[in-house]
């Protein structure tokens, strides 16, 4: 969480724009890692389990949080 001037408002980190270069670096690294996972498994298709493993390694997911929980929290259906 980012420190807010008003204690009553809650600002999500995702509301702040990312520098385009850092987002490109992150997405490039993400695709490289997913490619490595599929190559290691001798597949050409990225599976959901590959993404879950990557999210666990990056610290976004734990045994208590699933990918569905992250999707519900950060990708609203609005």
TrEMBL record:
It comes from the Eukaryota. This is CENP-T/Histone H4 histone fold domain-containing protein. GO terms for cellular component: kinetochore; nucleus. Belongs to the CENP-T/CNN1 family. It comes from Eleutherodactylus coqui (Puerto Rican coqui). The keyword Nucleus applies. One of its GO terms (biological process) is kinetochore assembly. Keywords: Chromosome, Nucleus. It is found in: Chromosome; Nucleus. Residues 22-78 form the CENP-T/Histone H4 histone fold domain.
């Amino acid at each position: 969480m980012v420190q807010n001037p008003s204690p009553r408002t809650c600002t999500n980190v995702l509301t702040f724009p990312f520098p385009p270069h850092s987002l490109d670096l992150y997405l490039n690294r993400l695709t490289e890692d997913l490619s490595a996972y599929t190559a290691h498994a001798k597949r050409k298709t990225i599976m959901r389990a590959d993404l879950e493993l990557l999210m666990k390694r990056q610290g976004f997911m734990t045994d208590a949080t699933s990918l569905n929980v992250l999707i519900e929290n950060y990708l609203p259906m609005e």
